[in-house]
Amino acid sequence: MPSSSLLMLLIPTLGLLLLLGSVTAAGGAFDGNFYKNFEIVWGDGRARVLNHGKVLTLSLDQDSGSSIRSKNEYLFGRFDMQIKLVPGNSAGTVTSFYLSSLGSNHDEVDFEFLGNLSGDPYTLHTNIFANGGGGREQQFQLWFDPTADFHTYSIIWTPNSIILSVDETPIREFRNLEKGGVPYANNQPMRLYASLWNAEYWATRGGAVRTNWTYAPFTASYRKFEVDACVWSSGKSSCKSNSTSFGSTSSDGDGDGAGDFLYTEESDFFVQESIKWVQTHYMVYNYCTDWKKYPQGIPYECFVAQSRNNGVVNS
């Protein structure tokens, strides 16, 4: 087994191997086309698809932001998006990439990037909703400037866990602990969304810094989205499934449903080491340690996560 010091050197650069070792899918991910695979939800011209469908820009001004969503619904899969965030003074803005179902008891998995004053770091705000319940926020400050270039943000959603990664480096995992009474997103199909909107009353330092509209319009860019997932249509999944694994198909529905998402003890070890490394160095808020929010004790999933990090259990 590699030493802990060696792991700390390897983890930031071996993200691709770590993630693919943890979750593999047949069917072939592909560079998607925004024209073909998405529809504009709102924005009145502020969402623009460029370069023959390969690039999306979302803009925000004082009148409105903008948003798109996938035409397909999915139940499990891997979802990648390259994003370049709003540069300069972006205080009050939120750029997002997320999965969500509909209704009051909806499921949702969020990447939300909270803007800041020019020169100050963005905050990556993550949250997971299951059966309408959220409040599972974890926040990070990234180890690079997310406005200078595109970076890849990924959601890997399986019946066993949800993994969030940045540039192929896992930063967070939420496991299926329904047996312990914790709701999990495994019954409701979700669509993929991207949006840019004004949240000045909470986004930057809890609302202390408001949006400076003299910098508008604010613009974020998206490209190279890849979806390798089970398409949900007419109450059925495009993937084969059984009690231990499930198949995958590309987002256009052309796959044959062959292949499995597989976990191994070795890959899980590296994913957990990556998460520990990122959370030790870059996490700035964790609901699991918010004793004001949970004075009677942390939620069960937090206890399990801490135990796994300490090598106590393998739930």
Textual characterization of the structure:
- The chain is α+β, with helices and mostly antiparallel strands.
- The chain has 5 helices and 17 strands.
- The protein has helices spanning 4-10, 15-22, 34-37, 265-282, 300-309; strands spanning 38-42, 47-50, 55-60, 66-70, 73-84, 93-100, 108-114, 123-129, 138-140, 151-157, 161-166, 169-175, 191-198, 218-233, 236-237, 249-250, 283-286.
- The strands form 2 sheets. Strands 2, 3, 5, 10, 11, 12, 14, 15 and 16 form a 9-stranded antiparallel β-sheet that branches. It has an 8-stranded antiparallel β-sheet with strand order 1-4-13-6-7-8-9-17.
Number of strands: 17
Query: Helix/strand/pairing class, anyone?
Result: alpha+beta
Order of helices and strands: HHHEEEEEEEEEEEEEEEEHEH
How many helices does DSSP assign? Answer: 5
| Rough outline | globular
Rg, Cα atoms, Å: 19 Å
Helix content: 10-25%
**Average of per-residue pLDDT values:** 84
Main beta sheet? 9 strands, antiparallel
Beta-strand percentage range: 25-35%
Low-pLDDT runs: 1-29, 242-262
Which short descriptors sum up this protein?
alpha+beta; 315 residues; eight-stranded antiparallel sheet; 5 helices; 15% helix; nine-stranded antiparallel sheet
Topology overview:
Layout: H1 4-10, H2 15-22, H3 34-37, E1 38-42, E2 47-50, E3 55-60, E4 66-70, E5 73-84, E6 93-100, E7 108-114, E8 123-129, E9 138-140, E10 151-157, E11 161-166, E12 169-175, E13 191-198, E14 218-233, E15 236-237, E16 249-250, H4 265-282, E17 283-286, H5 300-309
Antiparallel strand pairs: 1-4, 2-3, 3-14, 4-13, 5-10, 5-14, 6-7, 6-13, 7-8, 8-9, 9-17, 10-11, 11-12, 14-15, 14-16
